[in-house]
Design a protein that fits this description.
Helix content: 40-55%
Largest sheet: 8 strands, antiparallel
Structural class: alpha+beta
Radius of gyration: 43 Å
Distance between the termini: 114 Å
Strand content: 15-25%
Length: about 900
């Protein structure tokens, strides 16, 4: 009789459940037993960590005692009372498990008039009343004992410390209690052993630390020394003063060879689970002993309950599944029978199927179960689908391979580009650090003649121009790779526009064109946004406008609309529309589509070779990053208008003052002696910082890499550290992390000086412990400001720095300016840098007398000089020098 598939399935499942009942029980037992073992090991690890923390406090106190003693000896102190006071102060600050401590000298070292000297303080409640003497209140719970009476120079705790390393002694009985001692040498500055420091611990303290159950309210902890002496274990009160060894515990006697082989593990002996873990600091071993019954009872209960429940649930699910299966399969199977019979009949009539195949199909139709019939039907469908799917699969595979190859090529190209730009940044900025660094140093020398100062000025300006070109390329790369991030801060919008206006107002006057800033709409106080990137966009657009405008004027138009918040408490927004209009040569209509592409420049005769062709591309993508779009309207030969619109949150900050970096020559500082450690694997980078900082009065020490930097820091204790990031052996990040992990260097200022310009690298170095990021090439004005802030210095200048006043309003109408000669401009620049205002005014009077055409120029400089605006004068003169040099080049 043929059984249905449902009946067969039910019988098979139930038979399998009965057969696997024992296996499931064993499995549950093993799983829960392993879980209990894991819990035991976890609780043991927790207890080890607690005890280890106590041990580390003791070791730190020992190190502090040795260090204080060394410091006193180095200062030449020989008064025994002072050493007694130091030992008493350290004892009063002891860890809870410390019972006594002290330090003793080698012959005639700490106290030269005495051969032996060991001040020793101990808790009164742990020792005999006849030992030492009680101190006077409020220290009447402390005893003092000179260990010289105990002939300490013949004791292990003294002799072993002379071997040159700190170690824990094996437990020993003394004064009716069991103790262990941490002993170690005390050295002087030359490394000679001048004494021994010891910290005693009563093992009763350890027993209090481990007096708790291991698991489920049962089990106990023990601590053994590396030689098997029991330091702490659940003792009987009568045994608390006896020294016990592992051999006194039968189970430990059997397990001790296995415990010695591994740092941690769990063993079974004498119906008890024995878990153990070695403490790396001392070599001691903590053991957790848990009776098997504690683990076995819940394991058996959970195993039996889980297995029985699983069997009942499986039986119910199987019965329901079989019932539903029969309901769904019956109509499908009947349909398959009809299709199979029809197919068999057609095959016999049309294809002349072989008798054996026909008989097999007939037998399957009559005796096959539901799965056999379904299998036959699905095979027929599979044969029909296989032919059509095969061709499609081949096409998909071929297309997939093509896409994967294209993707791999694109990824490889992008990776190669990123690596190239990163390497280019570092390799170019490193030599530029030396060029710009020494040009800044040499420019402050008072012994240079005019020609030499001019050469250094050209070197500095050329280096800065090269740096700007590198920054343009890297900015574009960061935007394309989506690595550029906005860094919003609160800033004074009016101050930003004022600074931009001051820069381009003078440049417009030099070209004899007009420049005007028009503001309309709601007044703005402070806003929140990326001031650096917004300034970059405005500088690029205005620079292009003035560069391509030979006559007429350039205008910066700003319209502001304040959007009040709909809900009280929310922040108001400012919708700002910027437009830069010029009357220059305009843009050819066929170039408008490519104007924002990298390395595209307006085709013009004279200025085509100037710049990188990246300004508009970078500006466009920065505006997109801020949520706007840079647009252009231009008439060929009549001028262009670049415009964009951005939205910024309002800030409640009434006034945001931009940081002012003094450009006066620094010649020293007021304050305490300062030592600075410079860590860099490139000698030229260290040389630049050394050449700038040493003449100012700093003590400069150098290190080639992070590992040497750590060693120099521990040796010299510098007031400030300047470190590179990428170095061999140990890089800057790892060095910073290791220094911050030590409490004595947790607050030491650390400047990170790197050629990396990616914001994530700068941010990461500050998050991991850096105090300030100093990009390479190093700007010494920024460095001096940061040093003053972090070291609380007051700089000394060649002449007291002048206070910057509000800049004079710049005339916006075209003004013809006749410039002095290059030599006369350099003389004015030298006087302004020296702060000699009276001499500067005298030189201006002399120029007026020599050439009346220079009056318009001297009037502007004299106005700023009378208000001591030396920085503005210097910037104006530098621009004039640049204009003069360009004129000579074009004329040649």
């Amino acid at each position: 009789m043929r059984r249905s598939i449902g009946t067969q399935l039910f019988i098979s499942v139930m038979a399998g459940a009965v057969v696997t009942l024992l296996a499931i029980s064993i499995f549950f037992y093993k799983v829960l037993e392993n879980r209990s073992k894991t819990e035991i090991l976890g609780n043991l690890a927790t207890q080890v960590a607690l005890v280890t923390s106590q041990i580390q406090q003791v070791e730190q106190q020992h190190a502090d005692l040795a260090a204080l003693t060394q410091a006193l000896e180095a200062q030449g102190i020989t008064d025994p009372a002072i050493y007694q006071q130091v030992a008493l102060a350290m004892f009063k600050q002891r860890s809870p498990i410390v019972t006594a401590l002290g330090m003793g000298q080698t012959p005639y070292t700490l106290v030269p008039e005495r051969r032996w000297f060991w001040p020793y303080y101990l808790a009164d409640n742990e020792f005999s009343a006849s030992l030492g003497q009680l101190l006077d209140p409020p220290n009447d719970a402390i005893r003092y004992w000179d260990v010289t009476e105990d002939n300490y120079y013949n004791k292990d705790y003294y002799l072993q410390s002379l071997e040159g390393k700190r170690l824990w002694l094996e437990p020993y009985a003394w004064q009716g209690f069991i103790f262990t001692t941490l002993t170690g040498p005390i050295r002087n500055d030359t490394g000679q052993v001048i004494g021994s420091a010891g910290v005693d611990i009563s093992l009763t303290g350890f027993e209090q630390q481990i007096d708790r159950p291991v698991i489920a309210g049962q089990g106990s902890f023990s601590i053994l020394s590396s030689q098997g002496n029991l330091l702490a274990y659940p003792r009987d009160p009568s045994q608390s003063k006896t020294l016990t060894n592992y051999a006194d515990v039968p189970a430990l006697l059997k397990l001790w060879p296995q415990i010695q082989q591994q740092p941690s593990g769990i063993l079974f002996e004498d119906s008890t689970f024995w878990a153990y873990q070695r403490m790396s600091e001392t070599g001691w071993i903590m053991v957790a002993a848990v009776p098997q019954g504690v683990v076995l009872r819940p394991v058996l209960l959970a195993s039996l309950t889980g297995t029985l429940g699983a069997c009942l649930l499986l039986a119910g699910i199987t019965y329901f599944f079989v019932y539903r299966l029969n309901q769904r399969l019956t109509p499908i199977v009947e349909e398959c029978r009809e299709l199979m019979a029809t197919d068999l009949d057609r095959s016999q009539r049309l294809d002349g199927e072989a008798p054996s195949q026909a008989q097999a199909s007939s037998d399957l139709l009559e005796a096959g179960d539901e799965l056999d019939l379904l299998d036959y039907s699905f095979k027929q469908m599979s044969l029909q689908l296989q032919a059509s799917m095969q061709e499609l699969e081949l096409r998909v595979q071929a297309r997939t391979r093509e896409l994967e190859l294209a993707k791999d090529e694109a990824n490889a190209a992008n990776q190669a580009k990123s690596e190239f730009l990163a390497n280019m940044s570092h390799e170019l900025r490193t030599p530029l650090n030396g060029i710009l660094g020494y040009s800044q140093i040499l420019s402050q020398s008072p012994n240079l003649n005019v020609q030499e100062q001019d050469g250094i000025g050209i070197i500095n300006r050329s280096g800065n121009n090269l740096l700007l070109l590198i920054n343009d390329i890297l900015d574009l790369s960061k935007i394309e790779s989506r690595k550029m991030e906005l860094l919003p801060t609160a800033f004074d919008f009016k101050n930003l526009i004022r600074n931009v206006s001051d820069i381009f107002g003078l440049k417009a006057q030099q070209k004899q064109i007009g420049f005007e800033v028009k503001f309309s709409g709601d007044a703005i106080a402070g806003i929140i946004g990326d001031e650096k990137q917004l300034r970059q966009v405005l500088l690029n657009l205005l620079s292009n406008a003035i560069k391509f405008t030979q006559a007429g004027q350039v205008q910066l138009l700003i319209n502001s609309q304040r959007i009040a918040p709909e809900i009280e408490g929310e922040t108001a927004l400012y919708n700002l529309h910027f437009a830069v209009e010029d009357s220059g040569i305009g843009i050819n209509p066929k170039d408008l589509e490519s104007i924002f592409q990298p390395f595209e420049q307006v085709k013009r005769a004279k200025a085509q070779s100037e710049g990188t062709g990246l300004g508009l591309a970078i500006s466009s993508r920065i505006v997109q990053l801020m949520g706007g779009e840079l647009q252009v309207q231009s008439l060929w030969g009549k001028g262009s208008t670049f415009s964009f619109q951005l939205c910024f949150p309002e800030t409640a900050l009434a006034q945001v003052q931009a940081s002012q970096v003094s450009r006066e020559q620094v010649i020293g500082f007021e304050g305490e002696f300062c030592c600075i450690l410079v860590v860099d694997d490139r000698w030229e980078n260290r040389a630049v910082l050394n050449a700038f900082l040493s003449p100012l009065g700093f003590d400069i020490i150098e290190a080639n890499d992070g590992q040497e930097g750590l060693e120099m820091t521990l040796q010299h204790r510098p007031n400030l550290i300047i470190t590179d990031l990428s170095m061999p052996r140990l890089d800057g990040i790892l060095m910073i992390q290791q220094l911050r992990a030590q409490s004595e260097f947790a607050k030491t200022p650390i400047f990170v000086s790197s050629a990396s310009v990616y914001e994530q690298d700068q941010q990461r170095s500050l998050e991991l412990g850096g105090s300030f990021f100093l990009p390479k090439p190093v700007d010494f004005s920024i460095l001096t400001q940061a040093l003053a802030s972090h070291l609380d210095l007051k700089w000394l200048y060649h002449r007291s720095p002048m206070v910057d006043l509000e800049p004079l309003p710049i005339e916006r109408s075209p003004l013809s300016l006749q410039l002095p000669t290059q030599e006369q401009l350099e003389t004015l620049l030298r006087l302004s840098r020296s702060g000699l205002v009276n001499n500067l005014l005298g030189e201006l009077d002399s120029l007026d007398a020599q050439d009346a055409a220079l009056i318009a120029f001297t009037k502007q400089i004299r106005s700023m000089a009378k208000q001591f605006q030396l920085k503005q004068i210097q910037q104006c003169l530098l621009d004039c020098l640049e204009s003069s040099e360009m004129g000579e080049t074009s004329g040649g």
